Amino acid sequence: MDPATTEGHRERPDAGEGWVTDVLGPGFEQLTLPLAPDDEGEVVATLVRYTGGANGDGAPPSPRRWRWPWEHEPEPQPQPAASGCDVLYVHGWSDYFFNPELARFWSDAGARFYALDLRKYGRSLREWQTPGYMTDLAVYDEDIEAALGAIAREGGPEASARPLILVGHSTGGLTLSLWAARNPGRAAALVLNSPWLEFQLSGIGRQAIQPVIGFRARLDPMGPLPNVDLGFYTRSIAKELDGEWEYDHAWRPDRGFRTHPAWLTAILAGHATVAAGIDVGAPVLTLVSARSVLQATWDDAMLTSDIVLVVDEIARQSLKLGPNVTVARIDGALHDVFLSREPARAAAYAAVTRWLEGYAPGTDREAPPTAGA
């Protein structure tokens, strides 16, 4: 049975219980992070860590074999591309973390992998809350700081020396980019997976609609907005349909969460901030599909395209995140590049590895000299 079931997600750990087994099963644990309450009451975020990998579980290196004096020293072997780093992943809108393969990739790359379910999403969603609702993207600073604090406590005295790689999908990419710009020097690198950096109707469309949405937000901040999600994206990723992934459809609804004017006003404000130009203070890799297919009728091309955002706009706006930005366009990729079919996923992971090997964020990837006999 799929570990991330609707029945399972109702049995959430209480804040303060410490690390417990996660819904993803063996190799994953979760920690509830208490946050300041808001108008709807109690608020938490949830940090997920991967403990199942040889490189990501903090295990000490194997002891070196003693050698006879006449034996040659072995050549130093290069360390994995993200060796010594901490990775923090943040999901997108109407989403949560459910991709074990992504965790294993980063662990194999030498990093300690963590994923954050933001307040009112996934593991952090409570029955009395409006899913995903917020009125300012900066509210997630508290979630991120709580996660980084927990990571630092787990890492001990040397945690502050471990470079931080931020990995964000869609709205999570926008959120992390804005956070990094407000906190220069905290992140060593950003890897953005189809980040939602611009409105689908382009900058001109955003500027035209922003005053209208802002007016509605003042009159009725939580009023419903039209649902434009036709369920095609779910069809492209759900295993029981045309996709390859099992997940909790209560935490990731087939047609997305209901949206509200105050929420969209916050998103548009984030887009405007990026459009004006920011500096995230670290190298950026943006991964996008090679093409977008945005239409009201199903087409099999949607199985190999971004059907949520306009990839050309994402690529263009990515260049406004700082002076060191790389854009990789992955043929056959979906909106979530790492949920694409295997050939596209493999190409995406290869692109990340090449980029990490080029930048080596904050680490010396060469192995230390071997000890003498």
SSE arrangement:
Blueprint: H1 6-9, E1 20-21, E2 28-38, E3 41-50, E4 86-90, H2 100-108, E5 112-117, H3 140-155, E6 164-169, H4 171-182, E7 189-193, H5 202-219, H6 232-237, H7 261-276, E8 284-289, H8 311-318, E9 325-330, H9 342-359
What features would you describe in this structure?
This protein has 373 residues and is of the alpha/beta class. It is built from nine helices and nine strands. The protein has helices at residues 6-9, 100-108, 140-155, 171-182, 202-219, 232-237, 261-276, 311-318, 342-359; strands spanning 20-21, 28-38, 41-50, 86-90, 112-117, 164-169, 189-193, 284-289, 325-330. A nine-stranded mixed beta sheet has the order 1-2-3-5-4-6-7-8-9, sandwiched between helices. α2 (100-108) links the parallel β4 and β5 (112-117).
Which keywords apply here?
single chain; 373 residues; alpha/beta; nine-stranded mixed β-sheet; 9 helices; 9 strands; 15% strand; globular; disordered N terminus; disordered C terminus
Helix and strand content put the structural class at alpha/beta
Q: State the helicity in percent bands.
A: 25-40%
Low-confidence stretches: 1-10, 54-65, 363-373
Radius of gyration from CA coordinates: 21 Å
Quick synopsis:
This protein is an alpha/beta fold.
